[in-house]
Amino acid sequence: MTRLIRGALDFQRRIFHTKESLFGRLAKGQRPPELFITCSDSRINPNLLTQTDPGELFILRNAGNIVPPHGGPTGGEEATIEYAVIALKVRDIIVCGHSHCGAVQGLLNPQTLGKLPRVNEWLNHARAILPGLADCPDGEKLERAIEANVLLQLEHLRGLPSVAEALAARKLRLHGWVYRFETGDVSIYDPKTGRFAALSQQARVRGLATEESEAAGDKARDSSI
After folding, report:
1. Residues 31-191, CATH architecture
2. What does the pLDDT average to over 40-45?
3. Given 43, 127, 158, 195, which residue is catalytic?
4. Would residue 39 show up in a list of annotated catalytic residues for this protein?
């Protein structure tokens, strides 16, 4: 706890003033364009991963980046999503899974959940992925399960009334990501191929500049002078 107090004091003394105008604007309200749904795992920092400042991401976190399907008891997840879509009018929702996910590991190894009854119950919102993994080799099962869980939670998202209405009006887009924190790599689900592909590859396909492509462009321009 001491290090957190020291960190907060350091923020107040040294960091806050460098962004004081930003926080002044944020005091008047927020309008983040994206909702980022990810795991509570401490190894994921959504703002670090996306290089965003306070006010730029609306973030929802829980064990396993889960979106309970509509129709059950009202919970914080659906309330947060509803607020993001209707009140904040976010344009994009990202469901981001991650490598070495403990929630998904528990899903694959239910015997480890004996002393975690609420976690075990929570994971009922992801158990629909298990039949599709029956023939998956053990060495690939965790990674495939992490991807399958992202896709299942996107399916649950589409069933929420606020999301369904915004999708029908073409005011909202949904995205599935998997982040591998040990390498920094991000894969994005491509509905056209039905596969997750590297973010760098998707960026090229969509015409988004990356540091690699910018460097190649600079080299080409230099050689033409």
Report:
1. 3-Layer(aba) Sandwich (3.40)
2. 97
3. 43
4. yes
